[in-house]
Amino acid sequence: MYPYQRQFIEFAIHAGALRFGRFQLKSGRISPYFFNAGLFNSGERLRQLGGFYADALENSPLSCDMLYGPAYKGIPLACATAIALAQRYDKDYPYAFNRKEAKDHGEGGLIVGAPLQGRVLIVDDVITAGTSVRESVEIIRRAGAEPCGVLIALDRQERTDDGLSAIAAIERDYGLPVQAIVTMNDVIAWLAESGRFQAELEAIRAYRRDYGA
Ligand SMILES: O=P(O)(O)OC[C@H]1O[C@H](OP(=O)(O)OP(=O)(O)O)[C@H](O)[C@@H]1O
Ligand SMILES: O=C(O)c1cc(=O)[nH]c(=O)[nH]1
């Protein structure tokens, strides 16, 4: 694990964004942990978070023409990443996001921000079953642009109903590379090293026996 990944896990736990308990996921699965990017809920937290995303992108082979954040939690993530890329790396990427419900007055439509064009990087918080990424791919393609990859904070390393890992299925179906700041393996290694989360680790391991990739 790289130092920035360790720092990210500590940052997420400290902010309460990575927490342990009992959570129902979008997929219906009941998970013993949850990553809630909505709890990076101050200017300073968002500034730091954007820095982690920008560093992960710069340290990856991904390249793109613009960023796209799926509603809702992807919206501040794409904005924070765009700001950090401009500040840290002098790269001024356009960004856009969608509305969950189309607006029928004023400027109207589903997309806010820069027009979707060229190679579009999807920026989101987590991938579990991959539903959100699939929806984003459809939106980007419908606009005539080309999804070129996915940047997330946490790869939960789960499998889909057909037994494949959600990320492998995205790569297989769309040819999209996925880059995460950290994976669940990194989180587990960090929890084990800290020695303070024995019960949580056991619950996570049991969950992964059912749903792990
Ligand atoms: O890989 P999946 O199974 O799609 O699960 C992950 C997605 O689920 C959550 O979003 P959600 O649609 O719940 O919306 P929100 O951003 O409005 O919280 C999360 O922010 C991811 O986008
Ligand atoms: O699968 C989900 O719905 C999900 C998992 C998670 O850790 N965080 C989140 O916001 N959604």
UniProtKB/TrEMBL annotation:
Its cofactor is Mg(2+). Orotate binds at F34, F35, T128, R156. Keywords: Glycosyltransferase, Magnesium, Pyrimidine biosynthesis, Transferase. It comes from the Bacteria. Signal peptide: none annotated. 5-phospho-alpha-D-ribose 1-diphosphate binds at residues 26, 72-73, 99-100, 103, 105, 124-132. One of its GO terms (cellular component) is cytoplasm. Its EC number is 2.4.2.10. InterPro entries: OPRT (IPR023031), Or_phspho_trans_dom (IPR004467), PRTase-like (IPR029057), PRTase_dom (IPR000836). Catalyzes the transfer of a ribosyl phosphate group from 5-phosphoribose 1-diphosphate to orotate, leading to the formation of orotidine monophosphate (OMP). Belongs to the purine/pyrimidine phosphoribosyltransferase family. PyrE subfamily. This is Orotate phosphoribosyltransferase. It comes from Methylomarinovum caldicuralii.
